[in-house]
Amino acid sequence: MTVPLVYHPDYSFPFPSRHRFPMEKFARLAGYLRSRGLLSADNTYRPGPCRQSWLTPTHCPRYLQRFYSNTLSDREQRQMNLPWSEGLVKRTFLAPSGTVLTAQLALRHGIACHLAGGTHHAHHDYASGFCILNDLAIAANVLAGQDGGLQVLIFDCDVHQGDGTAALLRNQPRAFTCSIHCKQNFPFTKQLSDWDVELAAGTDDANYLETVSATLLAAIHRVKPDIVLYDAGVDVFEGDPLGQLKISEAAIRERDRLVLTTLKNAGIPVATVIGGGYDDDRDALARRHAIVAEEAIRVIERKQLRN
Length: 307
Ligand SMILES: [Zn+2]
What we know:
Belongs to the histone deacetylase family. The chain is 41% helix and 11% strand.
């Protein structure tokens, strides 16, 4: 069995290189996986633009229209914190579709990895923290409406709270939001997830891994999900400028391995998204984001890979 990887070449597009958001990381990640022989025509799936019927249960149609037509107010532009361009519009309407596709592939194959996604700060009618549309909430709402209503667990390990996801899915009984994040970090006004696990700034590897493991086991037991959407954010990394935790790259790898192994052993399909990660060394960042796909391939295909 080969792990399906979901990617679109328009995820990265010409973008100011000095901007805090590393827009080129998606192409770098795909390039890195390709260079390792892990991404090829055989295992790549390319999403189409997101269907309107997938977007509107989650987002305000007037907000979508304002973003699409570049008529966001000055305040909305500041909240978005990304310069508007046609390239941005294109990638914004592709990426949530990629997460939906990843979830559908996970249901079929047991696992699939999106080489993007995890824009968990986006709210119903406004952008926040570099997130315009909330792919996790969009996918959860799609899944909740199919096959008699699937039960979804969103297991969000990005260092920042999945505040948009929590707010958007508050009244969705088929989605359970679980966020493990740094208490002192953005967003400074937290929303109420179904389960929030707050880590103190400076949390180290051992405490982190123990927390992730215990939380995942308890969440599975409580929710009995038909599918897990796993946000494997790497901004927990000790060197991440927006992180505040003290997590090594080895521990990120161990985290991803333990999450994917646990779900495999429990027979629960998992769709992964890459989530947040910031680093001026964009190649190092791409390698860090590749960890979750590498571990998926290790766990599922039992392939021997050097790190
Ligand atoms: Zn983050």
